[in-house]
Amino acid sequence: MLIETRAYARAGLFGNPSDGFFGKTIAISVRNFGASVTLYPSPELTIEPQVQDTNVFRSLHHLRDSVGMLGYHGGVPLLKASIKKFAEYCDKEGIRLPNQNFSIRYSTSIPRQVGLSGSSAIIVATFRALMQFYNVEIPQPILPNLILATETDELGIAAGLQDRVIQCYEGCVYMNFDRPIMEQQGHGDYEPLDPHLLPKLYIAYNTDLGKQSGRVHNDVRARWLQGEPLVLDTMNAIADVARQGRDALLRRDNDALNDLVNQNFDLRSRIYAISDRNRSLIELARACGASASFTGSGGSIIGLYRDDAMLNRLFVELRKINARVIKPYVL
């Protein structure tokens, strides 16, 4: 029995990053890129390392670049943490797993550390493989919580639920993480939206090395926990962008959607430090006439474009700063 599962990249469209602050978001899955996991029975439980998990390097500079892009441990810790959290969930729920081992390996085409959620995609694909192998069902609204706990509890990654929700549900989803909802049911309200409602979207991402998103969020979270008015008010405003975005999608108001994308980034920049590299992505895309906001914590942007001529300008101009432009494949 050979099991193969897959999870896709994602892009936050509206409300990002208020998901970690009892906010609201709209996100899309980006099927241009994905992570896959292969699992099959074996005498012992074996995690097969991939090329990016190597401890052999061509040079000191190769090691430097590899660590800068992948961290110190590659993807193997993601698989270990996923397996551990899955076993703990089954124990807690009284699910008795059969005594059968497996070998597991992963591969990914998701650009790393540019805000497209490559790490959580590997974890989602791993959970899907384990669920299939052991014939275990995890309720869909609960699965994102387990994915998030795998990253925060096991690996110390600062993150929110948005990425894990869209990677579990796929398509286009409106998410409401209001505090009373979260406290009452333990997860948000997740409303799938028809992807055919989406306007013409582009994504552009850095092709050089990024940085880990957890570092970006830590300072703002501390200020939010301290009740800093600027942070509280801004996060509420960012969450309301998602609410307005949902309404604009349903009435197919592309002008409003275009403005809301820009508003999302402009609000974010009030409380987050924006690097020159990331700001240049935004400014160059807007100079081409497109709207632009981050898909995640930085390194890639998303926005609306008007026509093929504008899309071509985005291709040409953003290539000048080593950024690649794609049309996201959502369905």
From TrEMBL:
Pfam families: GHMP_kinases_C (PF08544), GHMP_kinases_N (PF00288). Keywords: ATP-binding, Kinase, Nucleotide-binding, Transferase. Residues 247-310 form the GHMP kinase C-terminal domain. It comes from the Bacteria. Residues 84-171 form the GHMP kinase N-terminal domain. SUPFAM superfamilies: GHMP Kinase, C-terminal domain, Ribosomal protein S5 domain 2-like. Gene3D superfamilies: 3.30.230.120. GO terms for molecular function: ATP binding; kinase activity. This is GHMP kinase. The lineage of its organism: Bacteria, Pseudomonadati, Bacteroidota, Cytophagia, Cytophagales.
